Each structure stands twice: as structure tokens, then as C-alpha cells.
């Protein structure tokens, strides 16, 4: 599934919810389905700077694609992590670096987050793109 198809799927998943309380509840459900990171990955190196709550993010590179894993100690933020992992995992570094994550605006997420959560969202996206850039650089000559 392409990055654009994944975003369209998320937009469709959120479309039945008219009320933002229902959308928050759905975010919590997504976060509950995310799973947990091993304690060995919950290090200062994997913490996203700029998030009010704790967010850990790791990435693996396999067969030219990046796979993200994340967790948060806050339920709504964990749902946001889940959305980003779902959209960006399984993409090439170039797809991630050049991605326009329009689903964030389309589902109204950005406008319904507190300023600190919005900053955290931007910090997560930035870190995911930095991972992609690092893997692209590392494997460019392979």
C-alpha cells in the first residue's frame, strides 16, 4: 500500500466521526492497539524531544524500507504515534523525506490538539524524517 493510500484509509476511518470526542476515543483505541516497546528501547536516545509526554521512537531498515516502532505514556499521544507509524512504516527513505502528511489536516487533528501536542506531533514527524535521511545516507552507496 502506498503512502497516499494509507493516508486515504485513515481519512476514511475518521470520516464517520462528527464529534471530536468520538475522534479522541478512536485515537485512544488506535493507541491501545499499538503495543509496547521493549524496555531496552525506552532510552534517552529514543525519546522525542519537544513532546510534553514521553514518546519513544525507533526505526529499522529492511530491504530498502523503513519500519517504525513507538510508544507513549499518554493515551491520546500513543494514538497519534500509531497513526504516524501506520502511514510511514514500510516506505522508502525518499517517500518519507518527501511526504506531505495531509491526513493530519484532513482529519482535523492539528486544529484539535493543544499547542504542546501539536509541537509534539511536529517533533515526531521531524524525527521520523531524520531517521529516513540517516538510512538514505547510510545505504546510498550499498
Helix/strand layout:
Layout: H1 3-14, H2 20-32, E1 55-62, E2 65-72, H3 75-88, H4 93-97, H5 103-106, H6 115-139
Antiparallel strand pairs: 1-2
What would you note in describing this structure?
This protein has 142 residues and is mainly alpha-helical. It has one domain (3-137): Sufe protein. Chain: A (Alpha-Beta Complex). Helices cover 51% and strands 11% of the residues. The protein is built from 6 helices and 2 strands. It has helices spanning 3-14, 20-32, 75-88, 93-97, 103-106, 115-139; strands at 55-62, 65-72. The protein has a two-stranded antiparallel ribbon. The longest helix has 25 residues, at 115-139. It is globular. The model has no long low-confidence stretch (mean pLDDT 93).
The parts where pLDDT drops under 50 for at least 5 residues are none
Overall 3D geometry? globular
* N→C terminal distance: 25 Å
| Annotated CATH architecture | Alpha-Beta Complex
Which fold name is given in CATH as the topology?
Answer: Sufe protein. Chain: A
Strands across the major sheet, in which order? 1-2
Q: What is the beta-strand fraction?
A: 5-15%
Mean pLDDT equals 93
CATH class designation: Alpha Beta
Element string (H = helix, E = strand):
HHEEHHHH
Total of DSSP H or I helical runs spanning 4+ residues: 6
Number of separate domains: 1
Q: How is the biggest beta sheet arranged?
A: 2 strands, antiparallel
Please compute the radius of gyration using only Cα atoms.
15 Å
Question: Structural class, from helix and strand content?
Answer: mainly alpha
Amino acid at each position: 500500500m502506498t503512502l497516499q493510500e494509507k493516508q486515504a484509509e485513515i481519512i476514511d476511518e475518521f470520516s464517520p466521526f462528527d464529534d471530536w470526542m468520538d475522534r479522541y476515543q478512536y485515537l485512544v483505541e488506535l493507541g491501545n492497539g499499538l503495543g509496547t516497546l521493549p524496555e531496552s528501547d525506552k532510552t534517552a536516545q529514543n525519546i522525542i524531544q519537544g513532546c510534553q509526554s514521553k514518546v519513544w521512537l525507533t526505526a529499522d531498515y529492511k530491504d530498502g524500507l523503513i519500519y517504525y516502532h513507538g510508544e507513549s505514556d499518554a493515551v491520546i499521544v500513543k494514538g497519534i504515534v500509531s497513526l504516524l507509524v501506520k502511514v510511514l512504516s514500510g516506505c522508502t527513505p525518499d517517500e518519507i523525506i518527501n511526504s506531505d502528511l495531509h491526513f493530519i489536516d484532513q482529519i482535523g487533528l492539528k486544529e484539535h490538539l493543544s499547542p504542546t501536542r501539536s509541537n509534539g506531533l511536529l517533533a515526531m514527524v521531524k524525527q521520523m524524517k531524520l531517521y529516513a535521511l540517516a538510512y538514505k545516507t547510510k545505504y546510498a552507496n550499498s
